[in-house]
Every structure is written in structure tokens, then in C-alpha cells.
């Protein structure tokens, strides 16, 4: 028994930005970017909202729009969704949640919704949380049935995890260190509890304190001065009234060091918990932060690079959506089939990291 992925979808904005175009904005070139990141192009949401991207990915995962993958034939009714979890750093509004906006758009009239802020680990945190909630609900339903009483909590049988990101809204387009890396898009999976299937085999999540602010972005409202704070010191007043930095900031070398270590560590822990060897995994689906990080992980594990799904060349880093987008492309391209084992890994701001193994 377990949480099985029964649908997968993705959505990318229409506008494709090349490295040469970035070279017209900042001091960079295609020859500089590709060897360091593996990125050739990225999609930028000039007109699309997070709701547009998330809803399109969700509808494809449900089989209600072309371009998705379904475990079985036939579309999935959005009204059958009990919950929507949306990992995102860039919701369209502070409230309602991005998940609620997507719920309204796709007609998931019975879904309870909330957002999740865990940066580029959203793929793992979202699916792992959905798995734990589905397992807990299944136990609650079984206990209620045995005792002849109603369940004590909301019954959950199907959960949509949809990560929707517009990192272009957080990027300082004058900062070469970050603007070359990120793109926009959404990835989604529909997870269902089944008594006759393995589904998710293991998961592992961790946090590391970011004491040095190596990967950081101030909130939109940060520390605005309040009328109740009587500040007498002129320097303190000036500091309180200083505008916050609206852009993400990253210490590249420190993040690279964290990412390479965290990805391998989390993959190994997820494999151990599932009692799997690295060779048992049909395809590794990592967060697409940098192709060099992925190649490093493959080499460290002694696995051929072909066993790692790579999409960063045309998507860039789409934060928590990137691995879900990569998973969708692997399923659509038939690199993964029902019965295969996949392992997804993520790492990002927080500092967050994690991995989960699941049988398709």
C-alpha cells in the first residue's frame, strides 16, 4: 500500500530567453554560461501568472489538457481532489493562497488548500508531506471503520501537489550571478492512496541553518516602520526606514558546496530507508539547479550520468517546480514506466534539502 502518482503535468511560459539575449542585458555570453551551468535557454513568464502556470500543469496532470501523463487511461475529475499543496516562493497574492487560486481555476471544489515555502526543495517537501497525510488518513479511515465511527479528520484519498514559480519576479536582472540561472514554470503530480501498490517507498527531509545568508530574499513587506515605535536615535530611524532589498541574493560558491553535499547525502538516506541500492533506481530526478551539481552527484555515487534526468538546459532553475517538470518530461518521453523506481532530490533556500524514492 502507498501513495501512487496517477498523473503528472508541467507548464512553461511562452517567452523563451536565450543566453545571447541575456548578454545584451548583463556582461555575459553563451560561452560563459553553458560550461558553468548547462543552461542554454529558460522560459520567462512575461504575461502568465502563477495561477496560469499552476492551473495548466494541474490540468495536464489530471488529463484534462494535452501534454500530461496519466497512470491509467481517462481524465481525473478535479472534484475528486481532497487537497492541493502548492510549494511556491512567488504566489500571485499574499492571500488567498496560490493553491486556493489554482483550486478555483481548475474546479477542485472539494479540495482543502495551502501553500508551502521551502524553496527548491518544494518538489520533495510537497510530495513527502502529501504521502504522510495520505498514509495518516488511510489509517484513520481504517480505524474509524473498525470502530464503527466516522473518521476523526478530513478523509484524504487524492492530493494534487503543484509547484508554481515565477523566479523572474525575484531576480535582479542586473546581477549576473543570479539572473542567468532562473526560469519560470510549474510542475504537478496527482497522488492517490492505494492498498494494492507501493507508491512512495521512502522520504528524507532536513534543514540547515542559513546563518550567513548564503541564499536569501527579503519579504515584500520586510521591516517597515510602525507608528507605535518611537525611535529617537537618528541612525536607528534611518535604518528602520531604509527600503528592503526585493531581490534574491546568493553566495554562489557556498551554495554550490552545500548543494553537492546535500544532494548526495539525501539520496543516500532515501535509498537506505527504502532498502534500495543505487542500481535499483531506474532514473534519478534531481532539482535542476546546475548541471555541474548533477554531474558531481552522479560521479560521487558511481552512477552513469544517463541515469540522471537533466532538463536545466531549456528550463533553467525553476525552484521547487524544476524536479516535477523534469519528472513529467521523463514520464512523457517514456524514460520511466509503471513499475520503475524513481528518486527525486531537492535542495535550496532555508537551507532545505531532501529526497524521496517511489515506484511509478
From TrEMBL:
One of its GO terms (molecular function) is 3-oxoacyl-[acyl-carrier-protein] synthase activity. The keyword Transferase applies. Residues 155-205 form the Beta-ketoacyl-[acyl-carrier-protein] synthase III N-terminal domain. Keywords: Acyltransferase, Transferase. Residues 271-360 form the Beta-ketoacyl-[acyl-carrier-protein] synthase III C-terminal domain. Its EC number is 2.3.1.180. It comes from the Bacteria. One of its GO terms (biological process) is secondary metabolite biosynthetic process. This is Beta-ketoacyl-ACP synthase 3. It comes from Adlercreutzia muris.
